[in-house]
Amino acid sequence: MLNLSNLSPAYGSTKNEKRIGRGEGSTRGGTSTRGHKGAKSRSGYKRKSGFEGGQMPLQRRVPKFGFTNINRVEYKAINLDVLAGLLEKNSATTLDAAYFVAAGLVSKNAKIKVLGRGEIATAVEVHAHAFSKSAVEAIEKAGGKAVTL
Length: 149
Description:
- By secondary structure, this protein is of the alpha/beta class.
- The strands form 2 sheets. Strands 1-3-5 form a 3-stranded parallel beta sheet. A 3-stranded parallel beta sheet has the order 2-4-6.
- Belongs to the universal ribosomal protein uL15 family.
């Protein structure tokens, strides 16, 4: 009968650990499989990350270009057709950042920009950090209001 007291791994599925540095008789004494001399044979050896044996490393071969603007503001885009889909599911009068977070469209700290793809038929007040011109026109045409945070 098979139970926890007599479980063992399948034959050939496990190997014994190499016992390194345990004398010449073990065949792994002496240099302990590290070869003779050089940095790699010594304790504390650590190769620099990206080192390619003296060859010019990829990191230095590839040219640098462009720059990162530290003042760039990244918006999460939400289109009108997405808003219309949300309004079909439940009839809200205002769509604000907390509503979008609850709907799973944006993360808590994201800045929101409403874009003009699609159409919206319901009059609704939309609160966001930015709007495209076409989105504002479409929201106001439907009788709603676009409020910039």
